[in-house]
Specification:
The chain is an alpha+beta fold. The protein has 5 helices and 9 strands; from the N terminus they run βαβαββββαβββαα. Strands 1, 2, 3, 4, 7, 8 and 9 form a 7-stranded mixed sheet that branches. A two-stranded antiparallel ribbon has the order 5-6. α1 crosses α5 and α4 crosses α5.
Length: 209
């Protein structure tokens, strides 16, 4: 059975990837089971570059095919921020010094503080780039976007990250109010993975869904 490593230590992303790749006839492997610790460096200038860096780094570390992603939240009222720094948005700034955030909840509250006083709606979008990398250095990329808006109160118990304050366009629900099945039809990551699936099948000899 062909093997594919899911290149993330984020348990929420891992669950989504496992569901999106189910039915391909692949053995899906997580990094922890291979003893790969710590995140790969993200020094790229965009989501595509970071996804490539992560996928290639984990492919070298594991000796297997790897799928990895980079994603971010872009808010129009903040001129596209936090963007690439979505997972590293400071909890607050004191005397000009950024205090690192430790949890998703701290990042959500920090974002809402930045938006306070700005006129609504706070239009936004999630963006994602997914990379498939092999040991020979080949990298295939696909991208996906999910439009919506930021709301000032948290709703829902599912998802992770900014999901509880992200209202998905065309619905009356936040990303955190969607079931995993619903999210995996609408999300930026789902759309990127869906676009990459034909390449995954071709590269790994996976079965059609």
């Amino acid at each position: 059975m062909p093997e594919l490593v899911i290149g993330t230590h984020n348990r929420g992303k891992q669950r989504e990837m496992e569901a999106l790749l189910a039915g391909l006839g692949l053995r899906l492997i997580d990094l922890n089971s291979l003893g790969v610790k710590g995140p790969a460096e993200e020094k790229g200038n965009d989501y595509v570059s970071n996804a490539q860096l992560k996928a290639l780094a984990y492919a070298r570390a594991t000796g297997r095919w790897v799928i990895a992603d980079d994603s971010g939240l872009e808010v129009d009222a903040l001129e596209g921020a936090p963007g690439l720094f979505s997972a590293r948005l400071p909890a607050e700034v004191r005397n000009g010094i950024a205090i690192p955030s430790r949890t998703d909840a701290e990042r959500r509250q920090a974002l809402l503080r930045l938006l306070a006083g700005r006129p609504r709606p706070w239009k936004a979008r999630f963006r994602c780039a997914v990379a498939l990398a092999g040991l020979a250095g080949s990298v295939d990329i696909a991208e996906g976007t999910c439009p919506g808006e930021i709301i000032p109160e948290e709703r829902g118990q599912g998802g992770f990250g900014y999901d509880p304050i992200f209202l998905v366009d065309g619905t009356d629900r936040t990303m955190a109010e969607l079931s995993l099945e619903q999210k995996n039809r609408l999300s930026h990551r789902a759309r990127a993975v869906e676009a990459l699936l034909p390449i995954v099948r071709a590269r790994l000899g996976a079965s059609p869904v």
